[in-house]
Amino acid sequence: MTELSNLYACFKYLMMFFSGVIFIAGGVLLGLGLWIKYGAGSFIQAIGSFSTQFINIGYICIGVGSVLVVIGLIGCCGAWKENQCLLLLFFCIVSIIYIAEVVGAVLIFIYKDIVESVVRNTSRVSLIHAYAGPVATDTISQAWNLIMLKYHCCGFDNYTDFTGSQFSNSTGLSYPKTCCVNLKELACDGKNTANTIIHEKVGTMIVSAVLFVRIGQPRKED
């Protein structure tokens, strides 16, 4: 009988642990959604036409995060109070979420190239048509400058992204100063494309990840 009681207690606390993990995950998603809605203004400007979808992602994170927080609370309360109704509700909801996650994972695997292509194309459009240079004060230019300075890249792929861009056409330069390895290097004149002078190509997955990092903070002056 004692062993059965110990097993039951172990199951109870294990249940509370997993419910706590779900609660924390929900809180993280909720926080991410709130940041997208209220703290990612510059980033939303930088991704141009994809901004609407990005905002929708924020709403989805808020919704899913809120649901997970509630589910975590139901699981914790059900396990702590040993309430069968709450536990049954918790297991039913978790089962549905598990199935949805499997389906979602399959869809992401199938359409990951499409998503990457959308992010790449929409971001390059804003870079080519709206980026005005390292001293520009508009939100798109500031956003791209911060990305290139913070993550040591030059454009989305490399300096050739600026070919035919608004920046290149107005200045006659091949890349902005923010592409330079050393911002004070005289050889980094917008024409010299040596890999020791400007940042080389950044991996696609890294750049894609960068696009989801906060860039709304002001750029530091050199």
What does this structure look like?
- By secondary structure, the chain is mainly alpha-helical.
- The chain is built from seven helices and no strands.
- The N and C termini lie far apart (72 Å).
- Residues 203-222 have low confidence and may be disordered.
- It comes from Huso huso (Beluga).
- It is found in: Lysosome membrane; Membrane.
- The chain crosses the membrane at residues 13-36, 57-81, 87-111.
Concise structural overview:
This protein has helices spanning 2-38, 41-46, 51-81, 84-130, 139-151, 166-171, 204-210. It has 222 residues and is an all-alpha fold.
- Indicate the radius of gyration in whole angstroms: 24 Å
* H and E string: HHHHHHH
What gap, in angstroms, lies between the N and C termini?
Answer: 72 Å
Q: Helix/strand-derived class?
A: mainly alpha
Proportion of beta-strand residues: under 5%
Mean pLDDT across all amino acids: 77
Shape: elongated
- Taking pLDDT < 50 over at least 5 consecutive residues as the criterion, the unreliable ranges are 203-222
Characterize the largest beta sheet: strand count, sense, and whether it forms a barrel. Answer: none
Number of helices: 7
Helix content: 55-70%
What's the number of extended β-strand segments?
Answer: 0
Features:
mainly alpha
Helix/strand layout:
Blueprint: H1 2-38, H2 41-46, H3 51-81, H4 84-130, H5 139-151, H6 166-171, H7 204-210
